[in-house]
Specification:
Layout (H helix, E strand, L loop, with lengths): L1 H9 L4 E6 L17 E6 L2 H10 L11 H15 L6
Parallel strand pairs: 1-2
Length: 87
C-alpha cells in the first residue's frame, strides 16, 4: 500500500494513510510517510485502523497482499453482514 499511496501522492491525488502506531517501527527511521496531497492518521491498534478505514472510505479496492489484507477483508465483510458498518 505504501507504494500505491506514494505514487498517487506524486500524481497529485489525495492520500489518507492510516497506520497503527506499533507498525511505525517498520517505516524508515521509525516515522510515518509524509504526503503533499493528504495526511497520515496514526492510531493505537489494528482495530482502530479498521474503524478509521471505514470512516474515511466510500469503497475498497483489494490488492494482492498477505494475512493482514485477508484479515481486513474478512473483518469489514463481517461487520457489513452484521449491520455494524458506519453510515
Amino acid at each position: 500500500m505504501g507504494t500505491a499511496a506514494l505514487t498517487l501522492d506524486s500524481l497529485g491525488g489525495e492520500v489518507i494513510g492510516i497506520k497503527p502506531r506499533p507498525l511505525l517501527i517498520y517505516e524508515p527511521g521509525g516515522k510515518s510517510p509524509q504526503f503533499r496531497h493528504g495526511r497520515m492518521i496514526i492510531v493505537n491498534n489494528l482495530y482502530e485502523q479498521k474503524i478509521e478505514m471505514l470512516r474515511h472510505s466510500d469503497a475498497f479496492v483489494i490488492l494482492p497482499g498477505g494475512f493482514g489484507t485477508l484479515e481486513e477483508i474478512v473483518a469489514i465483510r463481517l461487520w457489513q453482514r452484521l449491520g455494524m458498518m458506519m453510515s
